[in-house]
Every structure is written in C-alpha cells, then in structure tokens.
Amino acid sequence: MSNRLFGAGVALLAAALLAGCERPPVDTVQRGYRGTGMELVYNPRIELRVAEANQAPPVTPPADSDAGPKARDIYKNVPLLGHLSVAEFTRVMAAMTEWVSPEQGCNYCHDPAAMGEDSKYTKVVARRMIEMTQHINAGWKPHVAATGVTCYTCHRGKAVPLQVWFKAPPQDKRSDFIGDLAGQNQPMKMVGMSSLTYDPYSLYLLGDQTIGIGASTALPTGHVASILHTEETYGLMMHMSAGLGVNCTYCHNTRNFKSWEGSPPQRTTAWHGIRMARELNNDYLEPLTKTFPANRLGPLGDVAKVNCATCHQGVYKPMYGAPMAKNYPSLLVSAAAKVADGLPPPLAEPTRSVLYFGVGSATLEGEQAKGLTQLIATLGAKPTAKAQISGYHSAAGEKAANEKLAKDRAVNVRDAIVAGGIAPARVVLDKPLQVGANVSGEDPSARRVEVTVK
Ligand code: HEC
Ligand code: HEC
Ligand code: HEC
Ligand code: HEC
User: Fold this and answer.
1) What pLDDT is stored for residue 46 in this prediction?
2) Which of 259, 302, 309, 452 could form a disulfide with 243 if both were Cys (CB 3.0 to 4.6 A apart)?
3) What is the number of the ligand closest to the CA of 73?
4) Which atom of ligand 4 is nearest to the CA of 153?
5) Closest Cα to atom 23, ligand 4: which residue?
C-alpha cells in the first residue's frame, strides 16, 4: 500500500473518530484558582442555539387579587385557585394556555360546554401539575431559590415537555452469546453519547441508589462500590453535565471529586436537585400513571418523568435564571400547605423527613411534633437504618446566633429520637451541606431540620 493511501486512510479514520466531538473553536472560562483546572469549556455555536430556546416568555402584570368577586363565588370546581379574584384567575388560565397548549387553546383541558367538568385527562393532570409547581416553589427553595418555576420552565409551549424520560426496557437476551451488557456498550444520548449504563435515571431519579463511589478512608473498611456502580454514577453525572450544559468542573474540583470542601457551591444546589427530581417523579408523576392514556406511556407502561434537562434544557439555570415565577403569586405558595402556624406541613417519607420551626425557635410544636413521632416510628420499623440529621436556619438575623440555632434544632431532634427509644449510635448529626440559606429574609421553609434515613 502506498504511503499516500495509508495517510488518507488514517485521516479518514481520524475524521470518523472525531465525528462525535465538538468542532473547534471553543471558549474557556476560568472559574477557580489558576492552575487548579477549574475551567469551563463552552462551544459558542451550541450556546447560541441553547440561548434561543431559553428565553422567558412575556408576562402580563398580575391582576388585583382582592378586587371583585372570587373565582370560587362564580365557578363550581376550583379547589386550588378559587381564592383568586376572577381577573387573576383568568390571567392564570391564559398564562397556562400559553405555557402548555398555545396551539390547542383552552379546549386542550376544557370541554367548552362544561368548563367545570373534569372530563378531559389533561385537566386532571393540570390540576396536579399546579400542586406540583406550588410544591417546587414553596418546598424546594434550597434548589430553585426565589427564581422558582412555572409550567413554562418544563413545558416551553408544548403539552409534553421536550425532555422527559421513561424506564429503559431490559436487555433483550435472545440466543446471542453476548452475556449481560449491564445496560452498557451502546452509545446513549442520555449519558452524553458515552457507552455508560443507559438508564441512570431509574436508579437515581426514581430509586435512591447511593451515589458516592469513593471510599472515605485510605485502607479498605468494607466500602463496596463495584465497577458497575461506578459507571452508573458516571452515567448520572454525564446527564447532569449535559442537562445543564456545563463541564464537571461546574460542580467539582477534579483534584478530588468526592470532597465537598473543595467543590463549588453549585454542587450543593445540585445535591438538592437530585432529591427534588426524585420526589417529583415518585410523588407527583408516578401516581398519575393511570390518568394518562396509553399513547402517553413509555415502552414499559410507565409515565413520562423529569430529570435535570426537563427544566434546565442545556443551561446552568433554566432560562438563565429569569425570575418569571414571581409574577404568578398563586404558583408560589401551596394553598394546601398553609396551616395555622404558617409553617409548611412536616414531610415524613420513608427515607427523608423535613421538620419546620417557628421564628427563632428550636422546639418542634403541633403538626411538626407529629412528624417527628412518625419519623421515630419509621426508624423503629427499620432496625438497621441510620438517621442523618442536619439543621438549617433562615437568612434573616445574625450569623453566629443563626448557626447556633440551626445546631440546636438538629441536637433537639436527635435527643427526641433517642428519647423515643432509638439507639444513639443510629442517630448522627451531619453538618448541613449549606449553612447560609439560599433565600433572603424570614422564610418558614428555611427554618428546618432535614433527616435522611439510610
Ligand atoms: C393546561 C390545562 C388548562 C388550560 C389550557 C386551561 N385551563 Fe381552565 N382550568 C384548568 C384547571 C386545572 C382548572 C381547575 C382549577 C382549580 O382546581 O382551582 C380550571 C378551571 C377553569 C375554570 C373554572 C370552571 C368551573 O366552573 O369550575 C374556568 C372558567 C377556566 N378554567 C377557564 C379557562 C380558559 C378561559 C382557558 C383558556 C384561556 C383555560 N381555562 C385554559 C386547566 C386548564
Ligand atoms: C417539573 C416539570 C413540570 C412542570 C413545572 C409542569 N409540568 Fe406538566 N408535565 C410534566 C411532565 C413530565 C408531564 C408528562 C408528559 C406527558 O404528558 O406524557 C406533564 C404533563 C402535563 C399535561 C398533560 C399533557 C398531555 O398532553 O399529556 C398537562 C396538561 C400539564 N402537564 C400541565 C401543566 C401545567 C398547567 C403546569 C403548571 C401549573 C405544569 N404542567 C407544570 C412536567 C411538568
Ligand atoms: C451540576 C453539578 C454536577 C456536575 C456538573 C457533575 N457533578 Fe458529580 N456530583 C455532583 C453531586 C451533587 C454529587 C453527590 C451526589 C450525592 O451524594 O447525592 C456528585 C458526585 C460525584 C461522584 C461521586 C463522589 C463520591 O462521593 O464518591 C463522582 C465520581 C462524580 N460526581 C463525578 C463527576 C464527573 C466525572 C462529572 C462530569 C462528567 C460530574 N461529576 C459532573 C454534582 C455534579
Ligand atoms: C423543577 C425544575 C428543575 C429541575 C427538575 C432541576 N432544576 Fe436545577 N434549577 C432550577 C432552577 C429554577 C434553578 C435556579 C435557582 C436560582 O436562581 O438560584 C436551578 C439551579 C440549579 C443549579 C445552580 C446553578 C447556579 O449557577 O447557581 C444547579 C447546579 C442545578 N440547578 C442543578 C440541577 C441538577 C443536577 C438537576 C437534576 C438532578 C436539576 N438541577 C433539576 C430548576 C430545576
């Protein structure tokens, strides 16, 4: 073979191998101390495309919510938004139409002859979506901060959000001799065209498989993370990077991926994001499975679910952090969550509890104390589970006093759990990943203790 032919062959091979890479030139932005490799690489052409897709839609200013009759005085089936004035109610309906079904219009959810009936599944889903949106904004401030979300954050003018996921069907093991692929060895879009495991979402954004893979001690102390487990973690990380359009260094100092001390604060926000996506999938979307018609379900009959890309769509903050939610006050607070003491109801799930405190208080009262009782019962029923407790405070007030208050809250919860008959070794205090609250002012959802049960 002549050298020239060989050269051409090499060039072709190189072109084929590089076809999956991004075409230069690219820009880099330094985000950490020089020499530490804390740089982000951007591709201006991709940025341009993503930027177009991430413009917030125009808003009509809120109507006076106290003026005139209330929606519930006029309409018959408005359990969620009935407290709004008719003018504000109508504005929210018009906005929802723009966000979710601009082409189909009001009739996408309504039977025009009977607006109050729940005859279309889309209306039933929409009502639950309103509750979900309120819950994200009121209950997940550590992730969405004051920016919050509206229907548009996910829907972008489409009835089905562009980025959703379904469970992947298991490998078809016919008579081939390939063995168990363990979901690997096929380039999958969801893990950034790598051939990592193809369904990290079911493991981490529906299930709660542990994400850590690095051992915390130099010598082996029973830490077991298999290669498969490691690849699964990397699969999730590839999705998070692609979903946000950032490199690993947006959240990690690559000197030590595990270390929280060395990580940028965005990693803490991401930590909450993982838990939030998991909760939305388990508590809001999965229970709607039977409500959806079969053509909306995935190959395994499961409902479409959210991941990071559903909201972020390729940018570090959805729509570059445009605070559109603040223009829709009725989507910011959960009407159902408002109890007499102004605190959100305690969260008591098998693996996570959140208990809320009054201003300046480190004692749990009323409903919150009931949440604690439930947590003790959960721990009693799972004799091998451990509870990890972190205390938080609101942004208002003096720093040192606030930090002490956050700690007192955690210590009191620990003492109460131990007093409830749980062995002290099973209850550990954990320094919160984020001490400064992510919100400003006196926010009831910030004055809390979070307990993870593992
Ligand atoms: C994406 C789904 C969706 C779209 C689109 C939508 N609505 Fe609604 N609509 C709802 C839901 C959900 C409720 C119930 C709200 C509640 O539970 O408080 C509702 C309730 C209503 C009611 C109260 C009916 C009654 O008697 O109880 C009226 C009136 C209404 N919508 C008007 C409109 C108009 C006008 C439009 C178009 C500009 C529209 N809606 C578009 C979901 C939708
Ligand atoms: C966190 C992301 C997210 C937010 C926020 C959100 N949705 Fe959804 N929505 C979804 C997902 C995921 C589905 C399931 C997709 C499907 O229909 O198969 C869905 C489905 C729907 C559907 C059914 C559409 C169809 O044709 O099957 C309606 C209607 C809807 N949402 C309305 C709303 C409204 C109204 C809001 C705001 C109050 C809202 N959504 C907020 C993620 C979201
Ligand atoms: C948007 C933020 C974000 C991005 C981008 C990101 N990570 Fe992560 N990473 C996290 C968070 C949060 C955790 C901890 C998750 C948990 O414990 O629930 C984590 C955990 C890890 C771990 C496990 C560390 C341990 O405890 O053993 C590894 C390894 C890792 N990431 C690698 C990567 C790689 C490689 C990339 C780029 C492909 C990446 N990450 C991109 C946020 C991020
Ligand atoms: C329900 C919509 C939604 C989902 C789902 C979601 N996010 Fe976010 N995320 C937001 C919003 C809104 C913000 C902006 C908050 C702010 O302004 O500080 C944000 C902010 C962030 C930030 C902070 C960016 C910065 O520069 O400060 C990170 C990191 C992040 N998200 C990671 C994730 C990861 C990782 C996932 C998936 C596990 C995820 N998000 C899922 C809505 C979402």
Assistant:
1) 77
2) 309
3) 1
4) 2
5) 266
Q: What is the per-residue pLDDT for 442?
A: 64
Q: Would you say the CB of residue 159 lies under 6 angstroms from ligand 3?
A: no
Please give the distance, rounded to the nearest whole angstrom, from the Cα atom of residue 318 to the centre of ligand 3: 20
pLDDT of residue 7: 52
Query: Consecutive sets of 10 residues in the chain, 454 residues long: mean pLDDT of each?
Result: 52 47 71 74 78 84 81 91 92 96 97 94 96 93 94 96 88 62 61 68 91 77 76 91 92 89 92 96 95 94 96 94 90 60 76 85 83 90 91 79 88 92 91 56 78 90
Atom of ligand 3 nearest to the CA of 308: 1
pTM of the entire predicted model: 0.78
92 lines ligand 2 (CB under 6 A): no
Task: Tell me how far the alpha carbon of residue 127 lies from the centroid of ligand 2, in angstroms.
Answer: 10
pLDDT in the model for residue 15 = 47
| One-letter-per-residue 3-state SS of the chain | CCHHHHHHHHHHHHHHHHCCCCCCCCEEEECCCCCCCCEEEECHHHHHHHHHHCCCCCCCCCCCCCCCCEHHHHCCCCCCCCCCEHHHHHHHHHHHHHHHCCCCCHHHCCECCECCCCCCHHHHHHHHHHHHHHHHHHHCHHHHCCCCCCHHHHHCCCCCCCCCECCCCCCCCCCCCCCCCCCCCCCEHHHCCECCCCCHHHHHHHCCCCCCCCCCCCCCCCCCCCHHHHHHHHHHHHHHHHHHCCCHHHCCCCCCCCCCCCCCCHHHHHHHHHHHHHHHHHHHHHHHHHHCCHHHCCCCCCCCECCHHHHHCCCCCHHHHCCHHHHCHHHCCCHHHCCCCCCCCCEECCCEEEEECCCCCCCCCHHHHHHHHHHHHHHHHCCCCCEEEEECCCCCCCHHHHHHHHHHHHHHHHHHHHHCCCCHHHEEECCCCCCCCCCCCCCHHHCEEEEEEC
274 pocket-lining for ligand 4 (C-beta < 6 Å) = yes
Is the CB of residue 318 below 6 angstroms from any atom belonging to ligand 4?
yes
What's the confidence (pLDDT) of residue 169? Answer: 77
How confident is the model at residue 1, as a pLDDT? Answer: 39
